[in-house]
Design goal:
Blueprint: H1 10-30, H2 34-51, H3 57-74, H4 78-100, E1 103-104, E2 109-110, H5 117-140, H6 146-164, H7 170-190, H8 197-220
Antiparallel strand pairs: 1-2
Helix pairs in contact: 1-2, 1-8, 2-3, 2-8, 3-4, 4-6, 5-6, 6-7, 7-8
């Protein structure tokens, strides 16, 4: 544990402590269940570790996607479950291998990777096609907040693909996904389910983390 936090900057520690504090206090105030709290805390830790380029972030990501899938199932966000189980989880497994085999041994951080124009073109095409397919699949399963959930799936897919490919622009898509998730989980909160407020707070903190991650990868990774 000491080794995990040995090279953290003050701002990074501040973000982590801020996220933990906000989630714990909001969870107590809103009487959130343990799963919601745990998923939120693991999500924040994973985001910061990715922002630092730490290889262990891919292992934490596997834990995060598992917890989030369970939480999404409970709240009938079937689109989130589908992308997590069938796409994001396998990507993180690949990410573990990719990051371990492409890391700076001295700093234990990943070595960044550039994406070719051809790969970008394929990614855009697949994403557009995937959005169309997923929209109708989610509609068939009567997914809550259909359009927002569909956009959430695609941005999450692209962001995760890019992060396991070790590309800095993953954080730009994570930022977009954070905003969409704030809307997605904000809807039931506005409808009276305040127990989900920690998820919104988590994504607000993730938004700050990912903005920092984009800056850090541009300068240091």
């Amino acid at each position: 544990m000491k080794k995990l936090f040995k090279d953290w900057k003050r701002f990074e520690i501040f973000l982590l402590l801020l996220g933990i504090t906000l989630i714990v206090f909001s969870s107590i105030a809103c009487k959130s269940d343990f799963l919601t709290i745990l998923a939120s805390l693991v999500g924040i830790l994973c985001s910061l570790l990715q922002a630092k380029g730490k290889v262990i972030s891919q292992f934490v990501g596997i834990i995060e996607v598992t917890l989030y899938s369970i939480l999404s199932y409970i709240n009938h966000y079937y689109g989130e479950i589908m992308i997590d189980v069938f796409i994001v989880f396998p990507m993180y497994v690949y990410g573990v291998i990719s990051w371990i085999t492409h890391k700076n041994q001295e700093t234990d951080t990943v070595i960044s990777n550039q994406i070719s124009k051809k790969e970008w073109t394929i990614l855009v095409f697949v994403s557009m096609l995937g959005f169309g397919i997923l929209y109708f699949v989610l509609k068939y399963f009567h997914t809550s907040q259909l359009m927002v959930s569909s956009f959430s799936m695609i941005t999450s897919l692209v962001a995760t693909y890019l992060i396991v490919r070790r590309n800095k622009y993953s954080f730009a898509f994570f930022i977009g996904n954070d905003i969409i998730l704030i809307i997605l989980w904000g809807i039931p909160v506005l409808q009276g389910d305040f127990s989900l407020l920690p998820i919104i707070i988590e994504n607000i903190v993730l938004l700050m983390n990912d903005a920092y991650g984009l800056k850090n990868w541009n300068e240091n990774i």
